[in-house]
Every structure is written in structure tokens, then in C-alpha cells.
User: Which sequence fits this backbone?
């Protein structure tokens, strides 16, 4: 199963961005999106930002993911 996660952009250099989710940071490729700014939420899949999300939609998705994983230990 493939899953794209909403992550917040915290740094941008050229066409690469550093994104954060729950204290975890990753370097992602931003080439698939026309415009991304620091503070934007993006869907990240396989190392690429594939879509921009507004903050409300990102928070709703993250809340849903937290709810469905409640009680599971993720390693």
C-alpha cells in the first residue's frame, strides 16, 4: 500500500525542501510543484512533494491518521 503524508515545509534550497512531521525531518524533491513556500503543507510520496494542501486539510488528514493508528506501536 502506498501512502502520501502531509508534511510542513521548513526550508527550501533550489528545488529541494526540508519537510517536518512530528519532529521527523526529510529532504524532498519539489520539482513537481510550481510554487512552494516555507510554511506550506505538501503531500509527500516516495521522496517527492506531489501536491500542496491548505493547513486545515493537512491537519484534518493528520488527525485522521493519528486516530486510525491509535493503539499501534509503529517502529
Assistant:
Amino acid at each position: 500500500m502506498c501512502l502520501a503524508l502531509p508534511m510542513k515545509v521548513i526550508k527550501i534550497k533550489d528545488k529541494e525542501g526540508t519537510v517536518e512531521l512530528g519532529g521527523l525531518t526529510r529532504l524532498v524533491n519539489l520539482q513537481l510543484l510550481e510554487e512552494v513556500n516555507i510554511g506550506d503543507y505538501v503531500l509527500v510520496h516516495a521522496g517527492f512533494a506531489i501536491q500542496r494542501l491548505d493547513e486545515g486539510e493537512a491537519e484534518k488528514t493528520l488527525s485522521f491518521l493519528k486516530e486510525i493508528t491509535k493503539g499501534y506501536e509503529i517502529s
